[in-house]
Design brief:
The chain is 33% helix and 26% strand. It is built from 18 helices and 22 strands. The longest helix is centred in the middle third of the chain and has 16 residues. It binds adenosine-5'-triphosphate and magnesium ion. Adenosine-5'-triphosphate (ATP) binds next to strand 2, helix 1 and helix 14.
């Protein structure tokens, strides 16, 4: 048997108040794609941060190609050929692709031969099918392209142990397939690839082996061929998962939100929404399907008062709300669960208590007049944390210490507890594990059943079909068609997503 590229034995890592890794075993072989699977807070990122030298384990040993190592900094891990693409990319936006690639690679100074860098990038493109434009500036690139730069950066350094932390969370289904094709080619060249993921189907489709962690402990390592989604789910959560049934009738309620011929500009001045009309009723979930980047973000932002209306009107309960501030929209009962949790959603350096009242610090529950009652805030934050099962060491912890999934739970807890009339949810289950997904989906269904209007923006058609009463398909800022629940059809929606408009789509969007 060949020597494993990585062997981690009995790894234990404690943080104040929590044991993030307890006696974990992990092994990576050359030529394999190895998925690391586990619920939010299971300890996946921590284990990989240990492998990349970011953290020192409290106990346990690490062997790289059979030799015991002790990394006291990321430098040592890089020298051992280990590289990681983090959930949040670490590129310099104003630098070019080539400059980012050579940064920190050891090829310093003025004497880097750009020509040879470009030759290398062209070679990667041939060998792995991974294409980047060396001269482009990072800020000009899409998220998928930026991710490719991160991967090329690793290739340039000669990395042969590659770790990707939830790489497909930010990708479209098409981009995800391309990514795995690239990863497969790298594995075929003898590299070892570790992919952290929550998506069981994706893991089953792409991984050779799967290691499952639960509550900071090692559960088991499965061979991709010999396992199935049920076994993996059970290993992850130790119970059976059942999703709430969507049994409600068609929406009966009145329009709560109307968008009439909305035109909105995107960040680069382009028309992100083009005279778009949509109506949301009380007690319905209106799904918005579409490939990311077709106006979804702008749609959510304009409804929340975070983006200007260039033309058209927004009505809430029959009243004109065009051009109102974000505060006015919150007061009108509109709640946004945004895509970037630590950008528009939560404030990283503030603690859980502070974040939990960001939007309702004036309400009677936590304040009297201008005075905030911190004792009540503490109780309130505790209630949110308990009710939504946010895993944390305490409400005094800064939210940037929370794991990805727990951030999302806290955000949802805050938004829903404010009892809004309209919830705009942008990719609400991205980055969540199965247990948390179930939780969030059930919450959305329950909110719908109590008469709220929910605009659910998602890329996962399966999810949209499961939860929505109607699905509207957006393409380049326009609605291509709207389907009622009984007409849901994957192929039809696929055609609409690709830009084939259906007869009468405009009229239907404007009228019901
Ligand atoms: N620097 C830190 N300080 C304190 N606690 C931490 C730190 N990093 C992680 N933790 C805690 O350790 C536990 C494991 O976190 P980790 O980020 O490894 O989980 P994860 O499996 O990556 O979860 P997710 O899927 O949500 O990203 C969590 O309870 C987390 O709050
Ligand atoms: Mg993580």
């Amino acid at each position: 048997m060949t020597t494993p590229l990585v062997k981690m034995v009995s790894i234990t890592k404690r943080f104040p108040g929590v044991t993030a890794n307890k006696d974990i075993y992990f092994e990576l072989r050359p030529g394999e794609i190895h998925a690391l699977l586990g619920e939010n807070g299971a300890g996946k990122s921590t284990l990989m941060n240990i492998l990349t030298g970011l953290y020192m384990p409290d106990e346990g040993d690490i062997y790289i190609r059979g030799t015991k190592v002790k990394f006291s900094s990321p430098r040592g891990a890089i020298e051992s050929g280990i590289g990681m693409v983090h959930q949040h990319f670490r590129l310099v936006p104003t630098f070019s692709v080539a400059e980012n690639v050579i940064m920190g690679s050891g090829d310093h100074g003025f004497f880097v031969n750009m020509k040879s860098v470009e030759e290398k990038l062209a070679r990667f493109s041939g060998e792995y099918g991974i294409n980047v434009m060396p001269g482009s500036k990072i800020w000009q690139l899409s998220v998928g392209e930026q991710q490719r730069v991160e991967i090329v950066k690793m290739l340039y350094r000669g990395t042969n142990i590659m770790i990707l932390d939830e790489p497909t969370a930010v990708l479209t289904p098409q981009e995800s397939r391309e990514l795995f094709a690239t990863l497969r080619r790298m594995a075929d060249m003898g590299k070892g690839i570790i992919v952290i993921s929550h998506k069981i189907q994706e893991v089953l489709d792409n991984a050779d082996r799967i290691t499952v962690l639960r509550d900071g402990r090692y559960v088991d390592t499965f061979s991709g061929k010999d396992t199935d989604s049920r076994k993996l789910t059970m290993a992850m959560v130790d119970r059976d998962i059942s999703f709430g049934q969507n049994l409600a009738d068609k929406p009966k309620g009145n329009f709560i939100l109307r968008l009439k011929g909305l035109t909105v500009l995107g960040d680069r001045g382009q028309k992100a929404l083009k005279s778009l009309s949509l109506n949301l009723c009380k007690g319905e979930i209106l799904g918005i399907a579409g490939v990311a980047g077709n106006g979804q973000k702008e749609l959510a932002e304009v409804i929340a008062g975070l983006r200007e209306v260039a033309a058209g009107d927004i009505e809430v309960r029959g009243e004109r709300f065009t051009g109102k501030s974000a505060r006015a929209m919150i007061d009108a009962g509109i709640s946004l669960i945004p895509e970037d949790r630590l950008g528009t959603g939560l404030v990283g350096p503030l603690n859980i208590m502070e974040n939990s009242i960001l939007k309702n610090y004036r309400s009677g529950e936590v304040a009297s007049g201008w005075f905030i009652n911190w004792k009540r805030v503490r109780e309130y934050a505790h209630r949110l944390v308990d009710k939504f099962d946010v895993k944390t060491t305490g409400v005094d912890a800064p939210v940037r210490m929370l794991s990805g999934g727990n951030l999302q739970k806290l955000l949802l807890a805050r938004e829903i507890t404010n009892d809004p009339d309209v919830i705009v949810a942008v990719y609400p289950v991205r980055g969540l594990d199965v247990g948390a997904i179930e939780f969030v989906r059930n919450i959305l269904l329950r909110q719908r059943d109590t008469g709220k209007g929910i605009l659910l923006i998602s890329e996962e058609l399966e999810e949209l079909f499961m939860l929505s009463d109607r699905v509207a398909v957006i393409h380049e800022g326009e609605i291509m068609g709207i389907l009622d629940r009984e007409d849901f059809d994957l192929e039809r929606v696929g055609r609409l997503m690709a830009g084939e408009r259906e007869e009468g789509a405009y009229e239907r969007a404007a009228n019901r």
